[in-house]
Amino acid sequence: QVQLVESGGGLVQAGGSLRLSCAASGFIFTKYTMGWFRQAPGKGREFVGAISWSGTGTYYVDSVKGRFTISRDDAKNTVYLQMNDLMPEDTAVYFCGAQEMSSDDYDYWGQGTQVTVSS
User: Fold this and answer.
1) Rg (CA), the chain
2) Rounded distance, CA 40 to CA 44, Å?
């Protein structure tokens, strides 16, 4: 059974930091690009960033470059999103997704974790 379980969300003041985790199980983690997405109230799901299956490539939306860092620990089947210098506009539900190396779209999704940044 495939599972992606996010954790680490919460309430933080502007300028603060959070680290999200996404624990994966039920598939071969090292064959999947792992991505982070977010959805703010009343808005669609937005790509935040991703790390390639090999771990050698990372990609970010412009609005988080220099503030957010994605990493993965293949031994723990876990991907992380380190978020620094958080701003109120980062408030959203954050989801992780898994995309098989030959797939055109994300194959699996987590249930999401809430991040709220107060001003």
Assistant:
1) 13
2) 7
